[in-house]
Structure formats: structure tokens, C-alpha cells
Specification:
Blueprint: H1 2-24, E1 27-33, H2 39-54, E2 58-64, H3 65-68, H4 74-78, H5 85-95, H6 101-114, H7 116-128, E3 134-137, H8 143-153, E4 159-162, E5 181-184, H9 187-195, E6 203-205, H10 223-229, E7 238-242, H11 250-258, E8 266-272, H12 275-281, E9 287-291, H13 296-300, E10 305-308, H14 312-320, E11 325-328, H15 338-346, E12 350-353, H16 359-366, H17 371-380, H18 386-400
Parallel strand pairs: 1-2, 1-3, 3-4, 4-5, 5-6, 7-8, 7-10, 8-9, 10-11, 11-12
Helix pairs in contact: 1-18, 2-18, 7-8
Length: about 400
């Protein structure tokens, strides 16, 4: 027993010593992200904030790949840089125009392969002009061209992909057969990485998706009082409706359908930058419309359940706050988000509907018996701390690849 305790103590001391060496080593890290949908940028900024506290000698540069590739972006070229491909994507999400998104995604992937030489020429020039110790990708689809261009300019710099989706769907959305590290937030993603023949030491699993630091702040002490401030009933079942930073017209349908639930239900609707949506919802009974804010965790903690898009970020945020989810899966669902409905059902943390028109029945089902409480218990068991786990993974990669 004494020897075991002594050994464990030695390992902890060695770990602290290694951590001190890593923290003291000046390094240049590049986080590559897109603003498409907002989740990739949010993850990059959240991780940079934690790294800044934990490893102050690291310089973390945020690289917007859309800006970097603007000279070869076909939409930007046609519109003389007034509109980008990123703008088109966000506009489609805002309007809910996502029918046929799988063929569109396949077309994008084919276009990337076709234009790879031009894309890599731009990337080659960028990497050659930079000091690089580590490159971290938080985006899908472009990892092959990013990896090849980095290898030419910096052959020994580690390349890491942090998946901000629960699975690689469709194939080659996130995972490519190349000599890199992959950080996965689900068992399914790990299984796919193994099938892709990544070496075991290159596959790193964390406990979920990256959340903003605010989701780890203390919850409001008086939820009743906070609801009253919003003009809401402190005792009425409350839905948190959210469709990302650009909002969605689907929120209007959901608010109308909530009025058809057999018992009174109120809602907090996160409208993001969608000022038109906020204006349309203003004054509707039992509905509180919130414009763009960085206080999403606060409003989530005032709700009892979540209704919204099946995005990995929104689902993970809601579950971290203990909110069971009601999400939609149908022909409008983005292909990379279809697996999320399976994940929700498997983990018994919410309900999946074919259409948000089915919200009245879904909400009624959610409140039958003790189902809501059971879903809450399952949600709290997830214990997502990926935001704090990933910096340590990156430090390990830097140390052992040095």
C-alpha cells in the first residue's frame, strides 16, 4: 500500500513538473476557424481564453479561413468581394433554406478537391510567412488541403483537428486519412477515427463539445425573480427556443404551436442578430424575445427545456444547463447534424420530432409522469468539461512531438 501511494505521488509530481515545463515554453499556435454558423469561431475563442489563463507563454492566433481564401472564393470573385461563401451559408441557415443540403455539401467537397491546387497555393504562401509550432483546425471539409500545405511549409509542426460535431457525417466531413491528431467529443467519433486507421495515440477523446466559459459560471440563485424580470410567470413551464446566432423563422412556428399545448407554456426565444424575428415576436403573450447577447447561459438556466435546431453546440449547451431537448430531424436537417438526433435518443436526453408542427404533442409527452426529470438526470450525468480538457491535450501534443 505504501509503495502504491508513493508511486501515485511521484506520478502526480512528475505531471506537475511536465506541466510547468510546457507552460513556460513559448509557442505559436494557429487556430483555424470559419464564421459559418458561429460554432467554429465560438469554440476557437473559448479555447484561446482558457489557454491564455493556463499557458500564458503561448501565442494563439485565430485564422479565419474564409478571409485567407477570399482570393479564390468563387462567390467573392463573382460579387467583387461584396458577398462571400460564408455569407451565403449563413443566409441559408437564417431563412431555413436547407432542403437538398446533402447534394450541396457533396458539391462543395468535390469543388474543394477540384480547386485543391489553387487553395493550397494560397495556404502555402500563408504558412511560409508564419512561425508555427502547432496548427489546430476547428473546421470541416478543408482538413486535407490545410494539412498538405502545412506539411510543405512546416514538415514537423503537429496538425490537430478538433471535431465540433458528434460524428463524421458524411464521411470525410471531418476525418481524413493523414498523419494528424484528432480530438473527438463522442464515442461515435472515436469509433470512426479508429476505422479511419488513425494510430491510437493520435485519437484523443474528451467529454463533449466545446462550450463557452460562461456555461461553467454559477447559476442564478433566484430563478423565480429572474423570470419575473423578463415579465414571465415564475411557476409556468418555460421553453428556451434557439436557432444559433442568426435566428430562424422556425421560431415563430414554435411559439404559435406552444400556444396549443394542453397546459400553459411560456417561452424565451433567442433571436440573435435576427432583428426582424425579434420584432415579430414582440408583444406576443407568454413569449420573451431576446436579441443578440453573450448571456445565453443565463437565459438557458431560466428555462425548463430546449426547442431548436439539432446542432451539436446548441444541444450540448442545453444539456449542460440541465435542459432536456426537443429537436427536429427531416429533409431540412443538415447532413452533419442528422446523427445528433440518434445521439439524443440513445442518451435519453430529449425527444426528436419530424416537424416542429408536432411541438404540442412533444411538449405534452415531455411532461408526462417523471419523464422530464429523468431526462434532466441523464443530462446532468454527461459532465462535459471539454473546454478545460483540450488545452491539456494540446500541451501533451506539443511536448511529446517536440
Amino acid at each position: 500500500m505504501g509503495e502504491s501511494l508513493s508511486s501515485a505521488r511521484s506520478e502526480r509530481e512528475m505531471g506537475r513538473a511536465v506541466g510547468a515545463l510546457i507552460a513556460a515554453r513559448p509557442v505559436r499556435v494557429h487556430f483555424v476557424y470559419f464564421d459559418a454558423g458561429g460554432g467554429h469561431r465560438n469554440a476557437a475563442m473559448a479555447l484561446r481564453a482558457v489557454i491564455g489563463e493556463r499557458y500564458p507563454t503561448w501565442q494563439v492566433d485565430l485564422v479565419n479561413l474564409q478571409t485567407l481564401l477570399e482570393p479564390v472564393d468563387p462567390v467573392a470573385r463573382i460579387t467583387k468581394r461584396r458577398v462571400s461563401s460564408e455569407d451565403v451559408y449563413n443566409g441559408l441557415l437564417k431563412r431555413g433554406w436547407t432542403y437538398g443540403s446533402l447534394p450541396m455539401l457533396r458539391g462543395l467537397q468535390a469543388g474543394i478537391r477540384l480547386q485543391a491546387p489553387r487553395l493550397e497555393a494560397v495556404l502555402d504562401a500563408y504558412w511560409q510567412s508564419q512561425d508555427v509550432d502547432l496548427v489546430v483546425s476547428l473546421i470541416p471539409n478543408f482538413n486535407a488541403v490545410l494539412f498538405r500545405s502545412l506539411r510543405r511549409a512546416h514538415p514537423t509542426a503537429p496538425y490537430v483537428t478538433i471535431m465540433t460535431d458528434l460524428a463524421d457525417r458524411p464521411p470525410h466531413f471531418w476525418q481524413e486519412p493523414q498523419d494528424q491528431f484528432i480530438i473527438c467529443g463522442s464515442e461515435r467519433a472515436v469509433e470512426q477515427a479508429r476505422a479511419m486507421k488513425y494510430p491510437p495515440e493520435r485519437i484523443m477523446q474528451v467529454s463533449g463539445m466545446v462550450l463557452k466559459p460562461g456555461f461553467y459560471a454559477p447559476a442564478p440563485q433566484d430563478r423565480r425573480a429572474e423570470r419575473l424580470k423578463l415579465g414571465l410567470d415564475p411557476t409556468m413551464p418555460t421553453a428556451l427556443v434557439m436557432f444559433g446566432g442568426n435566428g430562424s423563422k422556425a421560431a415563430r412556428l414554435i411559439v404559435r404551436k406552444l400556444a396549443q399545448v394542453p397546459f400553459p407554456v411560456q417561452s424565451i426565444v433567442m433571436c440573435g442578430h435576427n432583428q426582424r424575428l425579434a420584432a415579430q415576436l414582440a408583444g406576443i403573450d407568454r413569449c420573451c424575445a431576446i436579441g443578440f447577447t453573450d448571456q445565453v447561459p443565463h437565459y438557458m438556466r431560466l428555462a425548463d427545456f430546449f426547442i431548436g435546431k439539432p446542432g451539436p453546440g446548441s444541444i450540448s449547451e442545453a444539456l449542460h444547463c440541465g435542459l432536456p431537448v426537443i429537436i427536429e430531424r427531416n429533409r431540412r436537417t443538415m447532413p452533419q447534424e442528422t446523427y445528433n438526433a440518434d445521439w439524443v435518443a440513445t442518451h435519453r436526453v430529449g425527444l426528436v420530432v419530424k416537424s416542429f408542427r408536432d411541438c404540442p404533442g412533444a411538449v405534452a409527452t415531455l411532461f408526462e409522469g417523471r419523464r422530464l426529470e429523468r431526462f434532466r438526470i441523464h443530462a446532468r450525468r454527461l459532465q462535459n468539461h471539454a473546454l478545460f480538457e483540450i488545452p491539456a491535450k494540446l500541451a501533451t501534443i506539443l511536448y511529446f512531438d517536440a
